[in-house]
Write a structure and sequence with these properties.
Layout lengths: L2 E7 L5 H15 L6 E7 L11 H9 L16 H4 L2 E4 L2 H10 L7 E4 L20 H26 L5
The structure holds 4-nitrophenyl phosphate.
């Protein structure tokens, strides 16, 4: 298991846990769970130790994803050693990550929606202060980008089911 993917948002209770759960399910479906380590973290520290927001969990559960075991944590310097793909939900997250990035980091630091196809958005909108439909939109965008990311990893790293 040598590829690590870290999804990052602000609080690690809405968008990045959604990406975490969706991407783990995509890997499992393709028999690739053992090939890629997945985690998520927030640039902020307000929600450390908390489970995903109940609205996030409910929207995810309606599509068959169980996010209940995830707990929020903050991005830490060691993440740049452990993860080769560090994928931000929005531009502010990306700017904050760029400031933390050590010069020796040789992986990819990018917007997660870089991997989405056919969507105009470049950022996954923060649903925290909005209505229920925002959480479904997060899932739509995350599912799209998760498929694109998985295809890319399979191709670039010649991943095989084990
Ligand atoms: P997330 O959403 O970054 O997708 O986890 C947020 C969660 C909490 C806050 C903001 C965004 N907050 O301000 O507490």
């Amino acid at each position: 298991m040598n590829i690590g993917v870290l999804f990052v948002c602000l609080g690690n209770i809405c968008r990045s846990p959604t990406a975490h759960g969706v991407f783990e399910q995509r890997l499992a479906r393709r028999g690739l769970s053992g090939a890629v380590r997945v985690d998520s973290a927030g640039t902020g520290d307000w929600h450390i130790g908390r489970a995903p927001d109940p609205r996030t969990q409910a929207a995810a559960a309606r599509r068959g994803y169980d996010l209940s075991a995830l707990r929020a944590r903050q991005v830490e310097p060691g993440d740049f050693q452990r993860f080769q793909y560090i994928l931000a939900m929005d531009g502010e997250n990306l700017r904050n990550l760029r400031q933390l990035r050590p010069a020796a980091f040789g992986g990819e630091l990018n917007l997660f929606l870089h991997y989405a196809e056919g969507v105009a958005e470049r950022e996954v909108p923060d649903p925290y202060y909005g209505g229920a439909e925002g959480f479904d939109r997060v899932l739509d965008l995350v599912e799209n980008a998760a498929d694109g990311l998985l295809d890319r990893l399979v191709r670039d790293h010649a991943l095989r089911a084990c």
